[in-house]
Each structure stands twice: as C-alpha cells, then as structure tokens.
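Our preliminary data section would be incomplete without showing what the modeling component actually yields. Below, a chain of 122 amino acids is followed by its predicted structure, encoded as tokens that our downstream tools consume directly.
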Amino acid sequence: MSILLIILHVVVSIALIMIVLLQTGKGADMGAAFGGGGSQTLFGSTGASTFLSKATTAAAIVFMVTSLALAYISSHQTPSSVMTDVKTPVTEQTSPAAPEKASDTNAATPAPATDTTKGTTP
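Predicted structure:
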C-alpha cells in the first residue's frame, strides 16, 4: 500500500512541476495595469480559468492528500530494523562438574623435591 502511494506521490509531484512550468507568467500583465488596459487588475484579469490552472489545482490536491497519507502511514508503522530478524545464538547450559575428593587431588600432585643435605628446596 505504501509503495503504491509513494509511486503516485512521485508521479504527481513531477506532473505538478511540469504543469507549473508550462503556464504563462503574469509578470507581463503587471506593466499594462499601470500604463493602459483599464479593465485589467494589478495581478491580471479574473477571467475563466484555463485547463492548466484546473490541472494545477487537481495535482496540488492529490499531492497534499498523498503527503498526509504517507505521513500517517509512516507514523503508525512498527519500527523495523535489520537486527529484528537476527536470532540470538543459543548457548548450551552444562552442569558444573562435581568437585573431586581431596584425597584424590593430593595423590595426583607430586610433592616438591627437597635436598636433604642442605635442608632447602631447589
């Protein structure tokens, strides 16, 4: 749904740019308002609207509606991240080894060698 709205929004924005650029400017009519042409007002005549002005209005309305819809969709979307799909590695829990008997530990450890002639250990 949001992909369709994004595509429509981009198409309408490009169309709006093209329609506005195709329209004639009102700057040429402004000089005539001061020197001649008493029927014209300062910002041009208020005659019947042309096809381009109606198309501009329609494109602007569609642009605003798609902008509001995209803003609503993006604010109500659950946040997604790359890390949401990563599973945590499972570590195997091993039980701790039973402690060995003290007598077995002492028997396995060799005693330090002592020099009997001097009474010190090397």
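The CA atoms of residues 29 and 35 lie 11 Å apart. The chain has a mean pLDDT of 76. Preliminary results of this kind motivate Aim 1 of the renewal.
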